[in-house]
Design brief:
The structure is a single chain. This protein is of the alpha/beta class. Helix content is 38%, strand content 16%. Helix 2 runs antiparallel to helix 6. The chain starts with 15 loop residues before the first strand and ends in an 11-residue tail after the last strand. The strands form two sheets. Strands 3-2-1-4-7-9-8 form a seven-stranded mixed sheet, with helices on both faces. Strands 5-6 form a two-stranded antiparallel ribbon. The longest helix is centred in the first third of the chain and has 19 residues. It is built from eight helices and nine strands.
C-alpha cells in the first residue's frame, strides 16, 4: 500500500450528515460509497436534491422527473439513506440567490446536521468546466450554512415554522483537487456505492458510451485510495467551522 499523504476524516465524531446537490445521480459518482460507510456506522444521512433532474434526458420533462426521482430513491436505499427531500427548482437553469439559500437553510435547521456536504463551485475542475447547476448549488450551500445559524436571516423560519437556528460544525466538498481528508471505502461500502449508481439505470441508458458503474466507480476510488494509503477511498476537502483560525497559514 502507498504511504498515507492525507489523514482519515474524523467521521467517528459524526452524528448527522446532510448532503446537498443539484440533481439525481450527483451523489452517486463516488461520494455515495462514503455515505454507505457512514450509515453502516450508525450515522444518519439525509439527501437534499434541489431539482428533479427533468432536463437531463430527451424524454418529456415530467416523465423524466418521475423516473429520476424514483431511481434516486432506489440509489438511497442501496446506501442506507432514508431521508430524501427533492425540491422543484428548475433543472439546467438553477439560480443562485435568496430563494435557493432559503430552501437549503430550512433543511439545515430542520435536520440539524453536524456535517453538511455540498458541491464544489469552481468554474474549472480536473474534469473540465463544471456544470452551472453544480456551481449554483455549491455556493448557495456554503452561504446557507452561515444563514442557518443566524436567527435574523430568514427569521420567518424561526417565528413561523418553529425551526431553531443551527450551526453545523463540518463543511465538506469533493476532494478531486486539494483534498484534506479521505474515507476508506474498501470492500462493502464500495460495492454499495457502485449499486447506488447502477440504480440510475434509465438515466445511464440515455447517456451514450457511459462506462459501466462497476468499472468507473472502482477506478475513481482506487485513484483516491493512494493518498489515504488504502485500496479504495473517497477524498474530501473538509472545513472544521468551529476550529480557531490558523493565522500562521496566512501569508
Amino acid at each position: 500500500m502507498p504511504a498515507m499523504t492525507v489523514p482519515a476524516l474524523p467521521d467517528e465524531t459524526f452524528r448527522r450528515v446532510l448532503c446537498v446537490v443539484a440533481h439525481p445521480d450527483d451523489m452517486e459518482y463516488g461520494v455515495s460509497a462514503a455515505v454507505a460507510k457512514w450509515t453502516s456506522q450508525g450515522i444518519e444521512v439525509a439527501y437534499l436534491l434541489l431539482t428533479r433532474g427533468e432536463a437531463g434526458m430527451p424524454n418529456p420533462p415530467e416523465e423524466t422527473a418521475r423516473l429520476r426521482v424514483a431511481e434516486q430513491r432506489a440509489a438511497c436505499d442501496a446506501v442506507g439513506v432514508d431521508q430524501l427531500t427533492v425540491l422543484e427548482h428548475p433543472d439546467g437553469v438553477l439560480v443562485y440567490g435568496l430563494d435557493l439559500r432559503r430552501d437549503i437553510c430550512r433543511e439545515i435547521r430542520r435536520f440539524m446536521p453536524d456535517v453538511v456536504f455540498g458541491s464544489a463551485f469552481d468554474v474549472e475542475t480536473g474534469f473540465g468546466f463544471d456544470q452551472a447547476d453544480h456551481r449554483a448549488a455549491g455556493l448557495a450551500t456554503l452561504d446557507a450554512i452561515r444563514d442557518a445559524g443566524n436567527r435574523w436571516v430568514f427569521p420567518e423560519q424561526v417565528t413561523g415554522e418553529g425551526l431553531e437556528p443551527h450551526s453545523p460544525r463540518w463543511y465538506l466538498q469533493p476532494g478531486f483537487r486539494n483534498a484534506t481528508h479521505g474515507v476508506d471505502v474498501t470492500g462493502e461500502p464500495l460495492r454499495r456505492g457502485v449499486a447506488s449508481l447502477e440504480a440510475h439505470a434509465g438515466y445511464l441508458a440515455a447517456l451514450p458510451d457511459h462506462p459501466a458503474p462497476a468499472e468507473l466507480i472502482p477506478q475513481f476510488a482506487a485513484m483516491s485510495g493512494k493518498p489515504l494509503g488504502v485500496e479504495h477511498a473517497v477524498l474530501f476537502r473538509a472545513h472544521d467551522l468551529q476550529a480557531p483560525p490558523d493565522f500562521d497559514a496566512v501569508d
